[in-house]
Amino acid sequence: MPITATSPSLLKRAGTDKLREVFQKYASLQKDGEHYMTSEDFVRKFLGLFTEAAFNDESVRLLAGIADTSKDGLISFSEFQAFEGLLCAPDALYRTAFQLFDRQGNGNVSYADFADVVQKTELHSKVPFSLDGTFIKRYFGEKKQRLINYAEFTQLLHDFHEEHAMEAFRSKDPAGTGYISPLDFQDIIVKVKRHLLTPDVKDNLVAVTEGHRVSFPYFIAFTSLLNNMELIKQVYLHATKGSRTETVTKNELLYAAQTMSQITPLEIDILFQLTGAVNQPGRIDYSDLSNIAPEHYTKHITHRLAEIKAVDSPNDRSALTQVLEATYRFTLASFAGATGATVVYPIDLVKTRMQNQRTGSMIGEVAYRNSWDCFKKVIRHEGILGLYRGLLPQLMGVAPEKAIKLTVNDFVRDQFTDKRSNIPVWGEVLAGGCGGAAQVIFTNPLEIVKIRLQVAGEIAGGSKISALSVVRELGFFGLYKGAKACLLRDVNFSAIYFPTYAHVKASLADKDGYNSPVSLLAAGAIAGIPAASLVTPADVIKTRLQVAARKGQTTYTGLWDATKKIMAEEGPRAFWKGTAARVCRSSPQFGVTLFTYELLQRLFYVDFGGNQPKGSQGNKSAIALDSTLTQQVRPDHIGGYNAAVPLLAGIESKFGLYLPRYGREGAAVPAAAAAGGSGTSS
After folding, report:
1. Which end of the chain is more exposed for a tag (fewer CB within 10 A), N or C?
2. Helix (H), strand (E) counts: the chain
3. In the beta sheet, which residues pair with residue 301?
4. Is there a contact between 628 and 672 (Cβ–Cβ < 8 Å)?
5. SS3 string of 331-373?
6. Looking at 15-24, 31-40, 151-160, 538-547, which range is the least confident one?
7. What percent of the chain has a predicted confidence (pLDDT) above 70?
8. What is the rounded distance in angstroms from the CA atom of residue 342 to the CA atom of residue 394?
9. Three-state secondary structure call for residue 300
10. Burial 185-200 (b: 16+ CB within 10 A, else e)
């Protein structure tokens, strides 16, 4: 299943017995009664990397050496367990890199260790780094005999890559003019900073220079910008007060940068040059930053029970694909609607009886003082099952009703959503209204049958009626009695509800844009409060029109007639009868419905190349996953080993330490690319 750890520090250690069971499953060597893993056992069989026949055995030994602290070429269970614990540490990425360079296993890195690993990387083979220069001597001493501890190593690793870039610049500028050509600039960035490049940035490296020579300050600012894109995102969020859709100008971003960071004006200029080359110039939003920033993150997503990729890219979406997408949404929405309706049905029954109660009740009719009194009397006179009177036809109708509402809302939202995944408020309102209007086709017959069944128990000793008898009595056109009031209620409800839900959901998302299941439930419930309460008058009118009037009760001929008579006979307060019960029913119902709908989309994930619900996954800038975003964690990757493959990929994509994957005869690709070709190296 997909990687779901939010950060290494949140990983839970695996139990010793379970870990030993996994270890013995892959340990192929037995020595003096003890089991051991070889390098291939650990890297190729257990981690699932370098599975090709022509794999680079030196790279495999280097990676296995991270866990092999005794450096004897074998991994014991104690070493296997110790590495699992290291993977759960908050600084696991740096510690893993340190153990890669600690070739002697003595807790220090010598010059020989450092040089040995660096010379085996792809970057060094393409852009050789002077391992006898002043930079190396500053860290390892003039005679290169000084040992580097873990804390010092973390700074060395950071500075080394920046020094490598500067040395590459000097190699392209032998005359010392302080300038390089646009093509030399592209060559350096692609080779030295490839782990920081998205396809959009890579394709526009020459375009962003506008054909001019690249100065050393511009080069340094460009590389600094690539290194600090996560900080730039925080500056943007500071400027927009947390909004991810609001656009900002260069001056607005520059002002925010000066108040909270050391981002320079030149870096801001380059940022807007990049976004202008990739997208429209002038203003940027969060999606622009994501387009040019590499997503060094773990996917923060709900565990998926199924995952299908219907198309390779959005450009491959056909009419059939869109029909299948609508069918998929319709099916999930049906289950979600039925779940929500069942949970709150007793509240709905109380709401209906309160709204149908008239001034001057008939003899034998049960009078309710309030919603709680109604609830108690239903149980007393009709039993617990009385609270679910009319549920079956409700479930039969609520599936297509909620399905068409959610599907149409999603479809119309897609039409008004731009390539940045933003939608104007009026588009949200219109989409919600369209969903509400479409559902009336199913809602009105459903509501009129449900209401007549719900109020049937109000008359003491009254005869029981069935859904079928109600349908026969009303006929086809009778099932649409009160449709205007139903339309008035549902269009306005959905036009209020869906935009409110979208904005509340966004406000409840964490800083990485991810919505937890609890926040989905809360957003759905909160959005239901204003939507349900504000359309109560329309709901009261609809109820009065659809209930069969008893002898002595006022009858209504239509929407306007009902409005006038209710006002004249009962006053304006009558229009708000059952508001509390309606809010108590609609708020949790839609909370449960939207919660179930979005959760089902996460559990049974199908990528049709269209828009996915916002907040279904978050970009967590904790571990770099550049070459393994689609890596599937094996069932045996328990505890800290859930993060093993992402961390090995992080060594590549954060530090640029790409190891050759194939032997000398093969092409070189990222070492941590997943089995089956899931690597994404350039």
Report:
1. C
2. 27, 10
3. 617
4. yes
5. HHHHHHHHHHHHHHHHHHHHHHHHHHCCCCCCCCECCCCCHHH
6. 538-547
7. 80
8. 9
9. strand
10. bbbbbebbbbbbbbeb
